[in-house]
Amino acid sequence: GVSVGVAMAQAVANLEKLKPQGMEIITAQIAELAALPAPTGPDEHAKARAYGLSAGVLDAAGPFQMDDLCAAASGLCDLLDAAPEGEVFDWRIVSVHVQAMQLMQKLPTGEAGDPARHKVLGGLREMLNAKLQPGD
User: Fold this and answer.
1) For 18, 37, 39, 71, which has the most beta carbons within 10 A of its beta carbon?
2) Residue 136: CB partners within 8 Å, gap ≥ 6?
3) pTM of the full predicted structure?
């Protein structure tokens, strides 16, 4: 047997080897999300596609503790999921989330980027809360 500490260290090292591939997946998912054309009318397929791409960002970022990207992707999923069927979805919400995710990829990691990340996530949280309040 292997001690828990050794197993954890090995798992972290193995995960770190996969980070470049994970970053490629995240970048590709965000780029594909950015390239989606805004629907001109009610379009459940477009919402489902945006949801799938956002969930892909969440899935790829999660193992690497990219909590900011996960929060942005999760928030977009929540908004898309809560959107009433058969109504036009405000696609600017997708655009704002894409821009936020792109910005977070460029911000420095660690304390240097924390204030900007918190500000971006705070804005997305405000949007999420405003859109998901009862009566909207």
Assistant:
1) 71
2) 130
3) 0.87
